[in-house]
């Protein structure tokens, strides 16, 4: 009988009666990543029942939910919810593959929806530090995770109108507004005038940020009675203080070779983005989240 037509029943089962399937496609589980799931299970219990099939001696073999089984054990759970279904080895393999490649089985929340939900939970706590601790993350993660929930009305309107390519690009525009409000307002006006169907991409936003000054506040330069000399003849601070002659670069000095940027596999970027619930275009946000995850796991 096909899996979709097989009878099933829901029940609570002693977690000690659940056995991993030696033929499971997931042969390795990242112990550090499992800590996050364990933290969730400890606070909320098993949200999604583990799918199992009957085995010998009144025991059960896990079809889908091996990570949940291990997290429940580490969290000290004794009873876990399961759905029991008779299933062939062939069907069990297909269930595991389809569940994990995400073909409609499970889909990450849109970044703004996720950010809004996390912020709603965080507001229950007295401080960002307490909220981050509840999630088992660092406070820096909380700020990053809720950034998309605090977009301005103008940026939100552009994102809803499809004139900004992703939530990540919208967050970048908000960052620009904090650094240089005038530059951000000018860019928003340019985006508003884009023809229908055209949008500002994350790449274009990065290019704007790369040339934007760090602050819109003017800085007062120290007066100088003498026009500055070319850069290669500029004295170093220590030399200038002692009125020593400027040092010139040797004519045949080798120029430093720029370090080539390592090319990241796009498939891996997409996978990490899906796991974090982010847009795959937003590589900067993905990197920031990964750094926060690493620091939280290391106790940073």
From TrEMBL:
Q: Where do the record's region annotations for Disordered lie?
A: 212-267
Q: What Pfam families does the database record attribute to this sequence?
A: ParB_N
Family, according to the entry, reads as follows: Belongs to the ParB family.
Q: Which organism is it from?
A: Azonexus hydrophilus
Q: Where is the composition biased (Low complexity)?
A: 212-244
- Pinpoint the ParB-like N-terminal domain residues: 11-101
Any idea what this protein is called?
ParB/RepB/Spo0J family partition protein
């Amino acid at each position: 009988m096909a899996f979709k037509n097989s009878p099933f029943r829901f029940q609570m089962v002693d977690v000690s009666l659940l056995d991993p399937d030696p033929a499971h496609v997931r042969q390795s589980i990242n112990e550090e990543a499992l800590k996050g799931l364990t933290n969730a299970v400890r606070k909320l219990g098993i949200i999604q029942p583990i799918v199992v099939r009957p085995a010998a001696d009144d025991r059960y073999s896990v079809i889908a939910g091996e990570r949940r089984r291990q997290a429940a054990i580490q969290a000290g759970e004794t009873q876990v919810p399961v759905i029991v279904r008779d299933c062939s080895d062939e069907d069990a393999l297909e269930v595991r593959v389809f569940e994990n490649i995400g073909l409609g089985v499970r889909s990450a929340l849109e970044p703004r929806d996720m950010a809004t939900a996390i912020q709603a939970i965080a507001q229950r706590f007295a401080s960002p530090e307490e909220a981050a601790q509840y999630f088992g993350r660092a406070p820096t993660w909380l700020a990053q995770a809720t950034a998309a929930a605090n977009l301005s009305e103008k940026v939100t309107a552009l994102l809803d109108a499809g004139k900004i390519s992703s939530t990540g690009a919208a967050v970048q525009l908000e960052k620009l507004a904090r650094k240089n409000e005038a530059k951000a307002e000018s860019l928003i006006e340019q985006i508003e005038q884009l023809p229908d169907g055209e949008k500002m991409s994350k790449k274009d936003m990065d290019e704007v940020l790369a040339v934007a000054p760090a602050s819109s506040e003017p800085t007062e330069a120290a007066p100088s009675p003498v026009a500055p000399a070319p850069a290669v003849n500029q004295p170093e601070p220590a030399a200038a203080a002692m009125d020593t002659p400027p040092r010139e670069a040797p004519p045949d000095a080798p120029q430093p070779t720029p370090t080539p940027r390592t090319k990241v596999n796009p498939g891996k970027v997409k996978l990490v983005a899906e796991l974090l619930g982010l847009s795959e275009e937003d590589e900067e946000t993905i990197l920031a989240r990964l750094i926060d995850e690493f620091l939280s796991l290391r106790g940073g």
